[in-house]
Design goal:
- The chain is mainly beta.
- Helix content is 11%, strand content 36%.
- The chain has helices at residues 2-32, 181-191, 336-343, 406-412, 539-544, and strands at 35-49, 52-59, 68-71, 75-82, 90-93, 119-125, 131-137, 147-153, 167-176, 200-203, 220-223, 228-235, 241-246, 251-256, 259-266, 269-271, 276-282, 289-297, 309-315, 364-375, 389-394, 397-399, 444-446, 449-452, 457-464, 473-477, 482-489, 508-509, 511-514, 518-525, 530-536, 547-552.
- Its main location: secreted.
Length: 575
């Protein structure tokens, strides 16, 4: 009897524990979100635009590529099948990848390219992101054709911090080249000159009415009168920031870079390459056809594509459409004030449901100059200014991409791949935004990283310079979002500039424009261990060396140490 009673009790305890573990597992799954699987097939596919047919590398035979849709906190496994002819990597722009830099994607920074004819599965770990992000190739210039959107909905049971829109629409701003983009950058790097500019901009892959052979395929966004639409806008353009607007319609910006902002009512936005914005628009005008337009912001002497892409904001119903849709009045291509006036209006929502935490006591401060430079060529033998080779730098160091990825070298203690000597200040100070003469026109070359202790409160002051062709530089940091606490024209002043900081509700973003001959200050807590790339998102500048790497060390607990690498990583040619 005793033994039988004990057995019954043990059975009851086992059943109870089984129930507890089952419930715990269910709660854990709910906490971690759902798991999704995607297959991305990279393949050369023919496309015709501007009366020109060419083959270009795309994902799943589409340009732009497929959309990844998740809820906040979900996990995604994307298997990239490279059926192209050369190695490629894919980056998940704005996805922080907590403790897991291995699938982040920048070529020879966190991985080597996925060889043609092979596959690689990348894990996307969504954490606090909510809104719109995007993915793109991160090897040479292949991102011109290999890119798409990521939409992160609120967790089930929660909703947007603004009225529910009637419908959502995705608008991806892209750039069309009649030539082969890889050949264009290869030629530019070989000769040392500026790469060819694009032949058109595009909205959802279509250039629009203002280009040859494009009217019939112009993208049309069909709307119902009185309804409000959420536009998820991605700037996948290679080398130009974009002014964007809709004729006779006001826009309300409510989100940016996978987070929420205080609503901004405006008739235009300025969005840099790499940025995403969530915008509400109400169809409250007389039913007709209205142009959605994107045109360049380029406050520079460097060559750029000075054309405009259009789509049509088309009302449903019976009416006689105009012979030409109404056009918005966007700022001029070099209107620096219009760009700056929009950008400084961006502020975090900073609500109870969406709080922020700006670092106030800084333990790691970096002053970083951002410059376009030259590399000397003997006998004026190169195609850049004065017969030299065009270059770019951060703190006067032009980044040299290694042949073995830095993450692998860091993890496996491989010597000779990089060094940890990226400085916290430039080599010397001068009037950065004035008459710079030959100051730092010639940078040093190197693969230099900056090591940051886990948990540090970091402040980076980006200082634009008048060296070379000055312009607005959209700086992007992998693995983090950061608070943009300050921005101004001219030289940063350690005494007066911090007095202008916004430490109450600064925008939390992953990409921000540093004004031409101006400065921008960002802050973040270094709580994501790993190897993280930082670079200008104007592709020609990144190709010239306007890049560096931040290495955030492991924290003291297992929960703040970098994860182990996956079982398979693409091989490096010289690893």
């Amino acid at each position: 009897m005793r033994t039988g009673g004990t057995s019954n009790k043990m059975a009851l305890i086992a059943a109870f524990l089984g129930f507890v573990f089952l419930e715990y597992g269910s709660l854990l799954c709910m906490a971690r979100g759902n798991v999704h699987h995607y297959d991305f097939v990279l393949k050369e596919t023919n496309f015709t635009r501007l009366c020109t047919t060419k083959s270009m590398l795309v994902v799943n035979e589409s340009w732009p590529g497929p959309v990844i849709r998740v809820h906040k906190g979900d996990t995604v496994f994307v298997t990239v099948h490279n059926n192209g002819t050369y190695g490629v990597t894919v980056h998940w722009h704005g996805v922080k990848q907590p403790r897991n830099p291995w699938p982040d994607g920048p070529e020879n920074i966190t991985q080597c390219p996925i060889p043609a004819g092979t596959s690689f599965t990348q894990e996307l770990s969504f954490s606090d992101e909510e809104g719109t992000l995007w993915w793109h190739a991160h090897s040479d210039w292949s991102r011109a054709t290999v890119h798409g959107a990521i939409i992160i909905y609120p967790k089930p049971g929660t909703t947007y911090p603004y009225p529910m829109p009637y419908k959502e629409e995705l608008l991806v701003l892209g750039e069309w080249y009649n030539g082969d983009v890889m050949a264009i950058i290869d030629e530019a790097l070989e000769t040392g000159g500026d790469p060819n500019t694009s032949d058109a901009f595009a909205i959802n892959g279509q250039p629009g009415d203002l280009y040859d052979c494009s009217n019939a395929s112009t993208y049309r966004l069909l709307v119902n009168y009185g309804k409000t639409y959420l536009l998820r806008i991605v700037n996948a353009v290679m080398n130009e920031e974009i002014f964007f607007g809709i004729a006779k319609h006001n826009l309300t910006v409510v989100g940016m870079d996978g987070g929420y902002v205080k609503p901004i009512n405006t008739d235009y936005i300025m969005i840099t390459p790499g940025q995403t914005m969530d915008v509400l628009v109400t169809a409250n005008q007389s039913p007709s056809h209205y142009y959605i337009m994107g045109s360049p912001f380029a406050d520079t002497t460097a060559p750029f594509d000075n054309t405009s892409t259009t789509a049509i904001f088309q009302y449903s119903g019976n009416y006689t459409p105009p012979s030409t849709p109404y056009s918005p009045s966007l700022p001029a291509y070099d209107d620096k004030d219009a760009a700056g006036n929009f950008t400084v209006r961006l502020k975090s929502l900073a609500s109870k449901q969406h709080p922020i935490s700006v670092p106030l006591i800084i333990t790691e401060r970096i002053f970083m100059t951002v410059s376009v430079n030259q590399i000397y060529c003997a006998n004026e033998s190169c195609a850049g200014p004065d017969g030299n080779r065009l270059s770019a730098s951060l703190n006067n160091i032009s980044f040299v991409t290694p042949t073995i990825d830095i993450l692998q070298a860091y993890y496996r203690h491989i010597r000779g791949v990089y060094n940890c000597t990226f400085p916290s200040i430039p080599p010397y100070f001068f009037n950065f935004t004035g008459d710079v003469g030959n100051n730092t026109i010639y940078p040093s070359l190197g693969t230099k990283a900056k090591v940051i202790k886990y948990g540090s409160a970091v402040e980076i002051i980006f200082q634009g310079t008048n060296v070379g062709a000055a312009e607005n530089h959209p700086m992007h940091l992998h693995g983090y979002s950061f608070y943009v606490v300050g921005m101004g024209n001219g030289n940063f002043d350690y005494k007066t500039s911090p007095k202008t900081y916004n430490l109450v509700d600064p925008p939390l973003v992953n990409t921000i424009g540093v004004p031409k001959n101006g400065w921008t200050t960002i802050r973040f807590v270094a709580d994501n261990p790993g190897v993280w790339f930082m670079h200008c998102h104007l592709e020609r500048h990144a190709s010239w060396g306007m890049d560096t790497v931040l290495i955030v060390t492991d924290g003291p607990a297992n929960t703040n140490k970098m994860r182990e690498p996956p079982a398979y990583m693409p091989p490096c040619a010289k690893s």
